[in-house]
Structure formats: C-alpha cells, structure tokens
Amino acid sequence: MAEEIAVILGDDGTTGRLGDPGTLAVFSRSAGTWSRVRGMPVVLDPSQGLKGMRTAAAGIAAFLGDCRVLVTRSASGALYFELEKAGCTLWEIPGKPQEFLDSVWADEEKAKVPAGKPAAADIPKPTEKTPGNFFISIKEVQGKRPDMSSKQVLQQFIQSGGFLVLDIVCSHVPPWIEVEAERRGYTLETEQLGKDSIKVRLTTNTGR
What we know:
Layout: E1 3-9, E2 22-30, E3 33-42, H1 49-64, E4 69-72, H2 77-85, E5 89-92, H3 97-111, H4 118-121, E6 127-130, E7 133-137, H5 138-144, H6 150-160, E8 165-170, H7 175-184, E9 187-194, E10 197-203
Parallel strand pairs: 1-4, 4-5, 7-8
Antiparallel strand pairs: 1-2, 2-3, 6-7, 8-10, 9-10
Helix pairs in contact: 1-2, 6-7
C-alpha cells in the first residue's frame, strides 16, 4: 500500500486551517522522497451547517482513498469530528510539507507498534494525586520525549474512563481530546495558565 499523507495547504504553501478555503494535497513517499500526487480545492459553506460538514467530510474522505493521515495548521469542530469518524488521523502542524512529512510518517509507524510491545511500556501515565483525580503535563512529557504525541500518551487512558477528574497541561487543546470528550460524555473545561500553557480538565459524569 502506498505511503501517503494529505495536507491542507493555504495560498502561501504552508498548512491551512481545517474549514478555511485551501487545497487538499496528497503526498506519496517513494524511496524516501515525498512528491505531490494529487490535489483538490476545498471550499466550505458554513451556512450549510452540520449537513454540509458531513457532506464535505465524505467528499474529503472519498478523495483521500486509502490515505488516512491528514495534516492541518489547526482543526476543531464538526468537520474534524466527521473526519475522525471516517477513520482519518489528524495532525496539527504549522509549516511547509517538506518540513514535517518525514516526522509525521515516522510517528505514524511508531503508533502501529502493538500495545504489548516494550515500546509501549515507556509511555508516561497520568499521576493519581488524590483518589480518582489524575494529572499529567503533556508539555513536560514532550520536553523529555519529543517523539511522543498526546494521542500516544493519553488516548487509551481517556478511553478507559478510569478517572473522576483528569487535568492535562498542554500548549493547546488537542482536537482529538475534544472529540473523545464529546463521544464519552465528559465535561471539558480549559484554563489559560500562561502564554503557551493551557490546563484542560476532563470530568466524568460520576465525578461532577
């Protein structure tokens, strides 16, 4: 199967925001080199509401074909949610494709390692501060382990639901966490701690 990564591009050739007008470009990797193999314009009409977002997501997923990795500058809202449901993995990275395609591909390959393998044993876990109340700083984890994504560290823990409150310190709210919170009925609150620091609090229904 071809190694492909899709990127939403703005007019300046750098990543664009999901939902803004731009170009959906698919890059294929061959012999360690990336080349653009196809593209299509993306223009969304917000007035069409959720139905329009679902139609747009279906069109994007169909165009991507077997490619299920999409990079944008930022992603949130209904379109992100619909693409996640379609099986797409979304990354938020500013910059030009040649600056990040190799690292995204490498991280995707690492994520394919079965959970039982030793590599997964290294993944940091949230700390239980008081019974049911957990804390983790993604900023601190990625400072020590830049190869770790927030999804690798937290997705399984969040999906397990074995907490009352989970506090996460990060530089921005990972959009996949918003999706998981909505899917599982968690309350999500954010607090700005500093210029590049946000606390995200997830609360389960039983912990409210």
